[in-house]
Amino acid sequence: MTVSRTPATVDTGVGVLDRAVQIVRAVDQGARTLTQLVDATGLTKTTTYRLLKALEAHGLLRFEGGFGYRLGPLLFRLGTRAAADLPLADAARPVLERLTESTGESSQLYVRFDDVRVCVAAVESPNELRTIVRVGAELPLARGSAGKVLLAWAPVAEWDRFADDVGDAARLRHQLVTAYRRGWAQSAEERERGVGSVSAPVLGPAGDVVAAVSVSGPVARMRAALARRYAPAVVAAAREIESALQLAGR
Questions:
Q1: Which of 84, 118, 223, 241 is deepest in the core (most CB within 10 A)?
Q2: pLDDT by residue (tens digit) across 14-43?
Q3: Whole-prediction pTM value?
């Protein structure tokens, strides 16, 4: 495998930090072994190994046998927190507050990150019995209405590789096609016992899905027949977020 040389980082005068960032940037291009990182950075093997172990200890990198080093969980959490401060989350917060006020249920905004969805904004229901999803939480794509919305607008070729998560490829395909056709999805006790939800896509200018807005609550209040009453409000919230994003981009 040929490894391209990673450009040197900015010289801040703090050499250890500059070299550590150079290693992280190299790993950002994909999993790298120690030898590949030496080739990519031009650092000595001893220096590279020492920095790798320090980065791994801090959670900035993780080692996977047979593959090498990958970006670590701390970077993911920091990235999620940063994403929560982006225009998407800023635009969504007042909309989610109104959505929770009108439905009485907790509301969330999810974005896709590789093969999971991540909550980047959330407003809790005032009800004593409610669902709580923390910002930064990673949840599955194939289970729950928000995940299904994010998948439904993804390329069809991706659908089948999530079939193992639900054990029925035909059923998953039917759910995704239904969600795409009607513009929203619902679920009951797919991800967590006793929890149901209704979700709709937030679409970009090209019609691609950029996020999923959702209301969730106890399944007694969110079963199929009852959940449909929330669909218009959730779809309207998604359109509001789209409009706010367009205004923010002007």
A1: 241
A2: 888 889 999 998 887 777 899 999 998 999
A3: 0.69
